[in-house]
Amino acid sequence: MSELRLAIMSVLMSVEEADFLYLKEVTGATSGNISVQLDKLSTAGYIEIEKGYNGKRPRTTCRATDAGREAFSAHFEALKSYLPTDSTH
């Protein structure tokens, strides 16, 4: 999983949903990079994307799916397996 996709999923794991501008702000990524990574996460079934309007302004909202939460948790557990298991290291 790319660093940006991991960052996006980290955010979505801690909130019910997040809008595009918030994800852009917290990751520091460009609009283009966020769009590409959201499309990849959506295609993989890890997130749902809802597009709508807030007044006249377009609004894109994302939320992690159950499959996305499971995949993120599995990835996190795999990363933890690389950490030393005792504190003497």
List the helices and strands and how they pair.
Layout lengths: L2 H12 L3 E2 H8 L3 H13 L3 E8 L2 E8 L1 H15 L9
Antiparallel strand pairs: 1-3, 2-3
InterPro entries: WH-like_DNA-bd_sf, WH_DNA-bd_dom, WH_DNA-bd_sf
Protein name: Winged helix DNA-binding domain-containing protein
Pfam families: HTH_34
In brief, what are we looking at here?
Residues 4-83 form the Winged helix DNA-binding domain. This protein has helices at 3-14, 20-27, 31-43, 66-80, and strands spanning 18-19, 47-54, 57-64. It has 89 residues and is an alpha+beta fold.
At CATH level 2, the architecture is Orthogonal Bundle
Annotated CATH topology: Arc Repressor Mutant, subunit A
Count the strands?
3
Number of domains: 1
Q: Report the β-strand fraction as a percent range.
A: 15-25%
**Total helix count?**
4
The CATH class is Mainly Alpha
Low-confidence stretches: none
Distance between the termini: 28 Å
CATH superfamily: Winged helix-like DNA-binding domain superfamily/Winged helix DNA-binding domain
Biggest β-sheet strands, sense, barrel: 3 strands, antiparallel
Write a structural description:
- The chain is α+β, with helices and mostly antiparallel strands.
- It has one domain: Winged helix-like DNA-binding domain superfamily/Winged helix DNA-binding domain (Arc Repressor Mutant, subunit A), CATH 1.10.10.
- The chain is 54% helix and 20% strand.
- It has a three-stranded antiparallel sheet with strand order 1-3-2.
